[in-house]
Amino acid sequence: MSSEPMGVADARKQLGTLIARAVHRHTPTVISRSTHERAVIISEEDYRDLVALRRAREEATVAKMIADTDAGTLPVATFDDPADVYAAVGLTPSPGR
Questions:
Q1: pTM of the predicted model as reported, rounded to 2 decimal places
Q2: DSSP code of 1?
């Protein structure tokens, strides 16, 4: 990845080139709208790879949690009241629940 993010105005002027770099050279470009808002231009192929990697990591995490639960090394919480579930994860139930 480039070391410095590119501003939106500069990226807009070079969009075709940035897309070609992402697609043909697999070179991502970071675009910054502010110090807190950033996005990355990557190829669709790279995006699909990232999504697949994220899914595989999530599946591995869930499989490990299931194995740990089966082995008795991961505590399992049970709830009798749905409101207690919401409270345990820091949410407020919708009205009527």
A1: 0.68
A2: -
- Shared domain for 71 and 86, answered yes or no, is yes
Domain that holds residue 63: 44-92
Same domain for 23 and 4? yes
Output the CA torsion 9→14→20→25 (10° steps). -80
Domain count, the chain: 2
Q: In whole angstroms, what is the distance from residue 51 CA to residue 42 CA?
A: 12
What are the pLDDT digits (tens) for 35-61?
Answer: 899 999 999 999 999 999 999 999 999
User: What are the DSSP E strand ranges found in 1-97?
Assistant: 6-7, 29-32, 38-41
**Quick one: 88 and 57 in the same domain?**
yes
pLDDT > 80? residue 2:
no
How far, rounded to the nearest angstrom, does the alpha carbon of residue 78 sit from its chain's CA centroid? 29
